[in-house]
Amino acid sequence: MSFPVGRVLRSAAGRTRTARLLGTLPTPAASTIPSRFRAPVTAGAAGFHTVPAARRQDGSNNNRTSAQTTTENKPTDEELASAAGSFARTDDSITVEYPPEEQLPSSEPVAGTDRAGAHVFPTLATFSLQGKVGVVTGGARGLGLVMGQGMVISGADLAIVDLNKEEATRQAQNIVDTFRNDHPDKKPPKVTAHYADVSDPASVEACIAEIVAEHGRIDNLVTSAGFTENFEAVAYPIDRMRKLWGVNVDGTYLFATSVARHLMGRNAKGSMVFIGSMSGAIVNVPQPQAPYNAAKAAVRHLASSLSVEWAGAGIRVNCISPGYMLTALTQKILDDKPDLKRQWTSLIPQGRMGAPEDLMGPVTFLLSDASSYVTGADLRVDGGYTVT
Ligand SMILES: NC(=O)c1ccc[n+]([C@@H]2O[C@H](COP(=O)([O-])OP(=O)(O)OC[C@H]3O[C@@H](n4cnc5c(N)ncnc54)[C@H](O)[C@@H]3O)[C@@H](O)[C@H]2O)c1
């Protein structure tokens, strides 16, 4: 096995980072870095120590490229100064407006028993959602669709809630068809589709009433409706920021409180999972997205706060914070800025973006009795991004 030859920079503050910026990633020309970001001091003055590059076992080092640094071939102070901080900062030139619905492709449920985890191997009974009724907001596409499918495969009936009811209806049928195909010997689940704008209280109340009328009750909730946009903070259109917070934060709050009222009214236990983001704990680079990051931090802390408030009622509330997952949302950003994928994956210890089905297990765990003593937690599903 060979490892990429890198160099480790240890900052004065003690944070260690592989010097991917000087290795696999191109070092930006000083002219591409806004003048106010150019480092005023040289690396030496800023207190960086260099550690010799890793060597192959045979002593050779032929993985190196000319851009990679060796102890014999040190970067000049000027090169270091031009790169300093550049990959740890946001780039004001990146602006991505969330596109109109019709410009986003629909997604498909996960097919095949190997990927979707069919009922083949024995597992703990407590992981089952058999007999539960789950609701997933934003379930017509992307992460919500696949998490909903994971709930169904784990035994739950499902209500898909989305702004796009037509797509939700199509996907409800798709999930049932895929289940029938993968499990011809099993009773197919009941999967229904419902309209709601999660940011609108009246719409949320009407939707919950409709789901209860069709399914009889609700046991589990996953709040996946949400979106991101990229604008530098000083130019973020206020109406778009309010909409972003309305869907991500108000939408989570409104759905959760409405389902909690329903559970309390029945004196029933329940489990909820809010979909936050690693952006609620770290600041992504280089795309600027301060309001989204703040919104996801709010979602995470809302989960903790409600978990305490509702613990006595037997309602658990946890958060899943995904890292970079490949969905229509992120694909749109990558279509606009293809170079970002290389930069993003270079920062993920597991070396790849997540697939939506990477969330099937975590969401099933948190909704099921397998996690009955877990509440108020934030489960990061990010390939290790936030650990480095
Ligand atoms: N994709 C990622 O890399 C990633 C990473 C971390 C967190 N997340 C979060 O995961 C969630 C799902 O993201 P995704 O990538 O699947 O997005 P997506 O755009 O593919 O799907 C979002 C769904 O939510 C629906 N929706 C949007 N606004 C709504 C509203 N007001 N009411 C009801 N439904 C609405 C959309 O119609 C769509 O079906 C979001 O909360 C997002 O912030 C995504």
From TrEMBL:
Superkingdom, taxonomy of origin: Eukaryota
One BP term from GO: mannitol metabolic process
InterPro entries assigned: NAD(P)-bd_dom_sf, Sc_DH/Rdtase_CS, SDR_fam
Biased composition (Polar residues): 59-73
UniProt region (Disordered), positions on chain: 51-92
Keywords linked to the UniProt accession: NADP, Oxidoreductase
Keyword Plastid: no
Pfam families attached to this UniProt entry: adh_short_C2 (PF13561)
Gene Ontology molecular-function annotations: mannitol 2-dehydrogenase (NADP+) activity; oxidoreductase activity, acting on NAD(P)H, oxygen as acceptor
Similarity-based family: Belongs to the short-chain dehydrogenases/reductases (SDR) family.
PANTHER family linked to this entry: BENZIL REDUCTASE, DEHYDROGENASE ARBD, PUTATIVE-RELATED
Protein name (Swiss-Prot/TrEMBL): Uncharacterized protein
